[in-house]
Amino acid sequence: MSPAAPPFTLQLALPSDIPILSKIGAEAFVNDRQTQMKDYGKTSSYMEDHGLGALEGYISSPKCVVIKAVDHVSSQIMGLVTWGFRGFEPEEVKEFERCTGLAVDRDMDALDGRKDLSWQGEKIAVNSTETPVEVDSDASKTEAAVDGTTVDAPTKSNEDPIARLQALTNHDMTNWSEKLMPPGTRCLFVIGLSVAPVWQHQGVGSALLEWGKSTAAKADTFCWVHSSEPAWGMYAKAGFEVVGTLDVDLDEYAPGPSPDREGKWGHYVFRYMKWSPKNVRS
Q1: What residues contact residue 32 under an 8 Å CB cut-off, 6+ apart?
Q2: How would you write the pLDDT of the chain (282 residues) with one tens digit per residue?
Q3: What is the rounded CA–CA span in Å between residue 130 and residue 2?
Q4: Whole-prediction pTM value?
């Protein structure tokens, strides 16, 4: 018999959590081939470095909700998700935080944020056996979606292969954001979801994802994600459907040979996936 999943609560992340949240993001992506290629020849982690700056903006943004899962016994942060809101007023986003027990003054780092997630009128200490997310979408690719900005198309003249790859994925992200979120659209989307390796396969990711699905259902709208290759199966299991893909030959953008796979990085498929409650027409 497998051991029971540890109980945990979902809480609003605070600025003081950023260092550990960034570290969790880096650890969750350690086996992701695209991330490994971005880190090739570097002494620091792309995901951790990016997370330090991006999370500060997400936590303070009225367009985002950053949620952490906290273990009851050890008080360790187990994982996090950043949900972006499109077409909602700041007060509406704050109300979603309040009605789900996540309301905390964003500027009060002294607060420990111990607000149980109230889900459909009940306090839940999640004890789930569902399969969790292990790694998820790269947060940098959804910044344009949050702000409604555009990204220039990739150019072959750029000498940095990783910069060319980033331009390609950002450009594709912008195009799909315009398709999924035309003017006037109200929706939620996953900016990033990561679970620390030690806490994976214990329902953490599923609970973080379910918060957004439940919120979208209450708002009579849909949610979507730009999924990394390893995570898309979990989203499919959760009811997300693939609406678009980007198949990238990583070797065209590699700064050096892969340490395995005979030096080849191979193909990597990003998937745009959408979930809608039954009462919402796609």
Answers
A1: 135, 228, 229, 230
A2: 555 555 899 999 999 999 999 999 988 888 888 888 888 878 777 677 777 778 999 999 999 999 999 998 999 999 999 999 999 999 999 999 888 777 454 444 433 333 333 322 222 222 222 222 333 344 334 444 444 443 444 455 457 899 999 999 999 999 999 999 999 999 999 999 999 999 998 899 999 999 999 999 999 999 999 999 999 998 998 899 999 999 999 999 999 999 888 899 999 999 999 999 974 555
A3: 13
A4: 0.78
